[in-house]
Structures are given as structure tokens and as C-alpha cells.
Write a structure and sequence with these properties.
- By secondary structure, this protein is mainly alpha-helical.
- Helices cover 69% and strands 3% of the residues.
- Helix 8 crosses helix 9.
- The protein is globular.
- The termini are far apart.
- Pfam families: CbiQ.
- It is found in: Membrane.
- It is a multi-pass membrane protein.
- Keywords: Membrane, Transmembrane, Transmembrane helix.
Length: 267
């Protein structure tokens, strides 16, 4: 049982994408993920795929690394495609087996939703692999700072988000340790089948949950000992947009938006 989780595990490469302002990367990623929801045909899918490929190449992120993330999301993508495949009752009937009918539009929508969610999730994964969790939370805090004037506890929300992102690799390592311990005791996790695998994973929940509570308690005690409340945070690094690097990235993002709109409205 291999656990490949990129959340909270950014790479340390020195590329142009890594050096961009985190605020720009967060806004660009949100915009890209929103555009993926409007992928409706081959031109828009190719445009979004080309943008993701160019960004991954600029970040020197191997395709096999992004492929591992797609493998982790395979169950979600399969369930989504099956729901659309069975629920859509429009177009010519392609396959009929008793009460079950698969229509042409169902196949098209199933493939379309797989492409949409795959590009969307891989775009988010690329952000997490090129930006540290602390930089992401700082960028979100700066972007949402105007809401603090309306009484929204932005600082506290960013502390919670930062702790959550930092805890993911820790819990992943704890899960791997528990799985290895269960295998050492004779647990069959790899060849047990789907139901057997789910039944074998039940004993993993209790120690994993207990470990999460233990980590949370230790963190809470450390924060109390330092009189940390989460408000009035200061920042070691001041975020400034670089006219050359960030300006070029902004121009490329606008170029992608224009190309996607052309593919969506004209082609």
C-alpha cells in the first residue's frame, strides 16, 4: 500500500515557476481550475492541456509525478464517469443490457467529466508541488486581508489552514508506519480484494486517529507555551511582484485566458 501524497510536500527546485510570487500562482491556479470546468469540446481540452503541460515543463515537474497523482484520483474519476455514463439518457443507444442503457451522450459526458476533473486536480497538484504550504497560506492571507475589515477572522483561518497543510505529510508518514506494522503482523492488504482491503483498513483508523489527536495536543501545548494566539501575525518575507518574472507570467496567463475564450466561443 503505497501512499503518494503531494499535499504539503513541495519540491525545492529552483525554477521560474518556483520563484514566482505565491499570490500570482494562487490566483492563476484558481483561474485555471475554474476554466477547466468550462471544458466542453476538443479545442478547449487541448488548450487547457497545453497550458498545464507548459507550466509543468517550466516547473521541471516530471509527467510521471503528476501521473502518480492521477492514479491516486482514479477511484474518484471512475465513479464520476460511471454516474454520468448511466444517468445520461440522451442520444442514440450504444449498448443495452436489460434495463441498463448506455447512450452516446452518456459516453461523451463521462469522458468530458474525466478530462475536466483530471485537469483541475492536476493543476492544483502542480501548485502544491511548486509552492510551500506556508507560502500558500501567506498568499491567501494577503489576498483575503480586505475581509478582515469586515470582521472576518482571516488570520485565524490562515493559521488553521497552515496547520492542516503541515499535518498532511505527518499523517501520511504515520499511516505508512501503521501499514508496515500491520503487515509485519500478517495483515494482507495488497491481495485482499476491494471488500477485504476495506475491512483490513478499519484497524488502521483507530491508531491513525489517536496519533492525530496526539500531534494536535502537542501542537496546542507548544502554542500555549509561546502565548501564540494567531492574531497580529508578522511575515519574515515581504511579497513583492517582480516586474520581469511576474509580469511575464501575468502576460502568459492573459494569453491563455484569451486562447481559451477563443476556443470556447469561436471554435
Amino acid at each position: 500500500m503505497a501512499l503518494h501524497i503531494s499535499l504539503g510536500q513541495s519540491t525545492r527546485d529552483r525554477t521560474v515557476v518556483h520563484a514566482l510570487d505565491p499570490r500570482l500562482k494562487v490566483v492563476a491556479t484558481i483561474g485555471y481550475m475554474a476554466s477547466c470546468l468550462f471544458v466542453c469540446d476538443l479545442p478547449t481540452a487541448l488548450t487547457a492541456t497545453a497550458a498545464l503541460g507548459l507550466a509543468a515543463a517550466a516547473a521541471r515537474t516530471p509527467l510521471r509525478r503528476l501521473g502518480r497523482q492521477a492514479r491516486n484520483l482514479a477511484v474518484f474519476l471512475v465513479v464520476t464517469s460511471l454516474i454520468n455514463l448511466i444517468a445520461t439518457q440522451a442520444g442514440p443507444v450504444v449498448l443495452e443490457a436489460g434495463p441498463l442503457q448506455i447512450h452516446h451522450d452518456g459516453i461523451r459526458l463521462a469522458a468530458l467529466y474525466v478530462v475536466r476533473f483530471l485537469l483541475l486536480l492536476l493543476g492544483g497538484s502542480l501548485l502544491l508541488q511548486t509552492t510551500t504550504p506556508l507560502s500558500i497560506t501567506d498568499a491567501l492571507g494577503r489576498l483575503l486581508s480586505p475581509l478582515a475589515r469586515l470582521g472576518v477572522p482571516v488570520d485565524h483561518a490562515m493559521v488553521v489552514l497552515s496547520v492542516a497543510l503541515q499535518f498532511v505529510p505527518t499523517l501520511s508518514r504515520d499511516a505508512e508506519t501503521i501499514v508496515k506494522a500491520q503487515k509485519a503482523r500478517g495483515a494482507q492488504l495488497e491481495k485482499a480484494g476491494l471488500l477485504g482491503y476495506a475491512r483490513a483498513c478499519i484497524p488502521l483508523v483507530v491508531p491513525l486517529f489517536s496519533g492525530a489527536l496526539r500531534h494536535a495536543e502537542s501542537l496546542g501545548c507548544a502554542m500555549d507555551a509561546r502565548c501564540y494566539t494567531g492574531s497580529g501575525r508578522t511575515h519574515l518575507h515581504v511579497m513583492r511582484l517582480d516586474p520581469q518574472k511576474d509580469g511575464t507570467a501575468c502576460a502568459l496567463c492573459l494569453l491563455y485566458a484569451a486562447a481559451f475564450l477563443i476556443a470556447l466561443l469561436i471554435l
